Amino acid sequence: MKKSVFLGALTVAGLTAGAAAAATLDDVKARGTLNCGVTTGLVGFAAPDANGEWQGFDVSVCRAVAAAVLGDPTAVEFVPTTGKTRFTALASGEIDLLARNTTWTFSRDTDLKFDFVGVNYYDGQGFMVPKALGVTSAKELDGATVCIQTGTTTELNLADFFRTNNIEYTPVPIETNAEAQPLYLEGACDVYTTDASGLAATRAAFENPGEHVILPEIISKEPLGPLVRHGDNDWGDIASWTLMALIAAEEYGITSANIEEMSAGTNNPEINRILGTEGELGAMIGLDAEWAKRAIAAGGNYGEIFAKNIGEETPVGLARGLNAQWTDGGLLYAPPFR
After folding, report:
1. Whole-angstrom Cα distance, residue 252 to residue 205?
2. Rounded to an integer, what distance in angstroms lies between the CA atom of residue 297 and that of residue 164?
3. 74 contact partners, CB below 8 Å, separation of at least 6
4. Is the pLDDT confidence value at 170 over 70?
5. Dihedral through CA 158, CA 162, CA 168, CA 172, nearest 10?
6. pLDDT, tens digit (0-9, with 9 covering 90-100), for 3-34
C-alpha cells in the first residue's frame, strides 16, 4: 500500500511538473523577459562588456529566442551559472533556457530530465600549458597538477584519459573559469583543461596569450547546446527551431544586411517559409509569421554570430572546423522548414 501511495504521489508530481513546464511560453510572455542561464564569464561566449551588457556566442542564442518570442532581443535577464548550479537553476524554473557551453550527454538528457534542443558548437576537450613547460603532448603530463571545473564532463574525461594512458595527475578543483585563470597563471596548476573553445577564449583574455600553448590532443566529443526542461515540448520546439533558423539562414544566404530585402519575397520557397512570407510555420509553434525573421535580425545568421564573437578575426581566433555548414564539410545541418 505504501509503495502504491508513493508511486501515485510521483505520478501526480510528474504531471504537475509537466503542466508547469508546458506553461513556459505563457510565463515568458506574461513576464515580458526571457530568463536565460549563461556562464559566469567566458570571453567570446558569454561575458559582460565594458558597459555591463552581456555579449557572446551563447548570449546570441538567448537574444534570438527573445526576439522570436517577445519581439525584442534585449528582453533577456541573464543569469550567471556555474558548472554546479546551472542544472538546478533550470530544473527549479529560475531560468527558462540554459545556453551555457553545456555538453549533450545521455545522463543529462535522461536522468537529469532535460531536453537539448540542438548543437550550436561541436567541441572537444583539450589541454593548455605554459609554453615554458616545454610540453608538446598531453601524454607527457605524467605527475602534472591540473585545474579543472567540478561538476562537468571535463572532470570525468580527464580521469578516463589519464587512466587509459597509465599516467598520474593531481586535480586542482575550481568552480568557475574566472577562478581558474589566476590559479593557472600563478602556477598553482601546470595545466588547465576544458573544452578547446573555452581554452582559446581563456587564453585570449591573458595579458600574454602567446606564452601559452593548447596541446594537439582532443580527448572527447563535446557537442554543446542549449537545453530546456523535460515535458516542455512546445517551448523546446521554439528554442530548437530558433537555433535551426540561424543555421539555415547562413546556408541560404540570409544575413542581417539583406533580410529586409529578402522578406519582400524570393523565388526560393524555403527562404520564404523561414522568413514568414509563405506558409504558416509560426502558427504551428504559437508564434507569428515573422518569428524567425526577428531571430535572425537580432544578431545575424549563425555564420555572422560565429565570426563576430569567436571567429578567426577575434581574439578567441577559432576556425569554423566542424562548425562549418554541411555544404562546406562541417556538421551544421538544419532540417527542412516545411
Report:
1. 34
2. 47
3. 63, 66
4. yes
5. 0
6. 343 344 334 334 444 444 448 999 999 999 99
Q: DSSP character for 307?
A: H
How far apart are alpha carbons 253 and 251 in whole angstroms? 6
- Strands 114-116, 121-123: pairing is unpaired
Q: How many CB atoms lie within 10 A of CB 210?
A: 8
H helical segments located in 111-232: 153-164, 177-185, 196-204
Let me know if 256 is exposed, middle or buried by CB neighbors in 10 A (0-12, 13-18, 19+). middle
pLDDT at 176 over 60: yes
Q: What is the mean pLDDT of residues 76-98?
A: 96
Whether 286 contacts 238, CB under 8 Å: yes
CB 112 within 8 A of CB 151: no
144: CB partners within 8 A, 6+ apart? 169, 170, 189, 190, 191
CA distance from start to end of the chain: 51
Query: Are 121 and 309 in contact, with CB atoms under 8 Å apart?
Result: no
pLDDT of 175 reads: 87
- Count each helix (H run) and each strand (E run) in the chain, helices first: 14, 14
Q: Hey, what's the cell of 41?
A: 564569464
Give pLDDT tens digits for 107-159: 999 999 999 999 999 999 999 999 999 999 999 999 999 999 888 889 999 99
pLDDT (0 to 100) of residue 11: 43
Tell me which amino acid residue 321 is.
Answer: G
Overall average pLDDT of the 153-181 stretch: 92
Look at residue 144 and give its three-state secondary structure.
Answer: strand
Q: Checking phi first, is residue 93 left (phi over 0); if not, alpha (psi -120 to 50) or beta?
A: left
Are 196 and 103 within 8 A, CB to CB? Answer: no
Report the relative pairing of strands 97-98 and 34-39 from DSSP bridges. parallel
- Separation in Å, CA 234 to CA 20, 24, 151, 182, 224: 12, 9, 29, 43, 21
